[in-house]
Fold this sequence. Notes:
- The complex is a heterodimer of chains A (about 375) and B (about 300).
- Chain A is of the alpha/beta class.
- Chain A has helices spanning about 20-35, 40-60, 75-90, 100-110, 125-130, 145-165, 195-220, 225-230, 235-265, 270-295, 300-315, 330-335, 340-355, 355-380; strands at about 65-70, 90-100, 115-120, 135-140, 175-185.
- Chain A has a five-stranded mixed sheet with strand order 2-1-3-4-5, sandwiched between helices.
- In chain A, helix 2 runs antiparallel to helix 7.
- Chain A starts with 17 loop residues before the first helix and ends in a 6-residue tail after the last helix.
- With about 300 residues, chain B is of the alpha/beta class.
- Chain B has helices at about 45-55, 75-80, 100-110, 115-125, 140-150, 170-185, 195-200, 220-225, 240-245, 270-280, 295-310, and strands at about 5-20, 20-30, 35-40, 60-65, 70, 85, 160, 190-195, 205-210, 215-220, 230-235, 255-260, 260-265, 285-290.
- Chain B is built from eleven helices and 14 strands.
Amino acid sequence: MSAADHPAPAHEIRERFGFWKRSYAMLVKEFIQLKRDRVSFAMIVMLPVMQLLLFGYAINTTPHNLPSAVLLQEDSDLARSVLKALENTAYFRFIYEVHDVDDFDNLLKSGKVLFGVEIPRGFERAVRRGDRPALLVAADATDPVAASAALGSLGMVVQTALAHDLYIGNPPEMPFEIRAHARYNPAASSSLNIVPGLVGTILTMTMLIFTALSVTREVERGTMESLLSMPIKPVEVMFGKIVPYVLVGFLQAFLIIGIGVGLFGVPLLGNLFLLALLSTLFIATNLSIGYTISTVVQNQLQAMQMAMMFFLPSILLSGFMFPFAGMPVWAQYLGECLPLTHYLRIVRAIMLKGATMQNLRFDALALAILMLVAMTIAVTRFRRTLD
Amino acid sequence: MNGGNGIAIDVKGLTKSFGGREVVHDLSMQVKRGSIYGFLGPNGSGKTTTIRILCGLLTPDSGEGTCLGYDIRRDAEKIKRQVGYMTQRFSLYQDLSVRENLEFVARLYGLADARGAARDMIKRLGLSGREEQLAGELSGGWKQRLALGACTLPSPKLLLLDEPTAGVDPKARRDFWNEIHALAADGLTVLVSTHYMDEAERCHEIAYIAYGHLLAHGTVEEVIAKSALTTYTVTGEELNGLTAALTGKPGVDMVAPFGTSLHVSGRDVAALEASIAPWREKGGLHWHESSPSLEDVFIELMSRSRDNFQ
Lengths: 387, 310
């Protein structure tokens, strides 16, 4: 073979739409590479499904037979009836009966029981007088899901159970007050928060890692040098590398929300289109941050470490794990700088409260700003030379 | 646009340091359009750095010049459009097929018909039927050929090839060089770095660079003539003993075995002749004066430059 045998047909070079053509070239290349990388592709699907099933089932299973203690300060028929009623709800299983407040406290503190019911002295008499005495139910809310589910349904269940026991028909009012006291974690978060929250955390994790590795991988495989010697601009490399993963993120969000609604009965009250739109914004923000990471680090290991460094505070300070409002002010400021914080508000508000764009404009704006900041850093950081 | 007067590369006083170590020192060179310019020198001599400066991947600390008529400092983007750079390491995507790699390059350069251009190149490379094979699965020789194909796809005016034939078998090397000559015949300028002497001899002009300094340049004949090296070729028995006896003697700059013969070279003819005189009378050894080979010249240059710069 030689040029003389097969003269090279001159292929015309067109300058128009150069930006789009070069970005497109990059995008097609990234897509093919993603398709070839079977393990990564499997992770895109398996990660959300596994996490959701594990978290979702662990969290959503209705708690029952929770080990409980009773502090009995009065041994009356009514007290026995109330205990029986509580046990009938299947939430509680009374394994200790104590008569001393200290013993009661220690059982809860040591974790031997998750619930304690205190029937105060003179309970029955007070009920008969119509004084509506308090029945104290203390919960170990370090396991907030278990605690809140049981506490939440307590009032109604006991009322129904007692109705058969004490009176004929439904009493117009509870003869006594149930005072629930969630110990150790007063702002127990509800389980419905978890599934929408998972959409955000899973997207953060996958999107960050995929793009954080993208530039360093080119450097390590030696393809960066020839890419730099070709007429492609940093911004075109960035778009080409980000766009395919927007679709990947979309697929993940679809999977998680689909499973959440279908399997766990999470409501989807708001506008699906709005959710898709703002999710895309959130995905692009995370991709930009991941891409920025990849322009800063030297190798793939560093990229992973830095992605984790960003991921952990995202989980801890965004309101995914702990209620945002419960954090100290400085931590809240820090949390406001994380895209996940804003997205959690968005996804929870749309799915659970049916919020509209009007309600969410601040968080959407915050996401857009974070994305632009990350993209600007990435494009300026991207080295066009090997200097 | 045209570097005028048929010069493709014209640079003066290029200097580049990394972390305080000067890798390229005051390097000036001119490469004629349509010629094959060989770049030789030991490992770490600054060949790759110079090539990277020429295609805009590195900015020189000082020095100036033009590449295809464009200023190497200001017009890096314009240079990139007309230069094909083949890196030392295989730089195509291993997880992309032959066709996908070529289409990627064609699109990046904005070829109107990327698929058509890739198809033509596959035919030209003789890779028809293997276009869907992953680039990473090709043999060394085919990888080099594909990389060269990718470089020439956007019809560049200048090719920069950084040790393109390292680790490639002789047949594939010869094919590769035939292709380079064919491209040069079409008017393409080629700057190629290599360690192989036979490849250097296939270049129109060569430059020898060591420790960042350009030590010699010109045609192969010119470089040999300029070396002012006198070489004797010795054949016979007991050559091993002769090597040991002559090494380090005044006037003997280099003693190197070549198969069944020994090359004894030096710049100072008188001193050299004096040192070898006792051995010339000895039976069993045949001495005759020969012109030094390119390798003799380079090894002598290399040992001299090591004394000077290290």
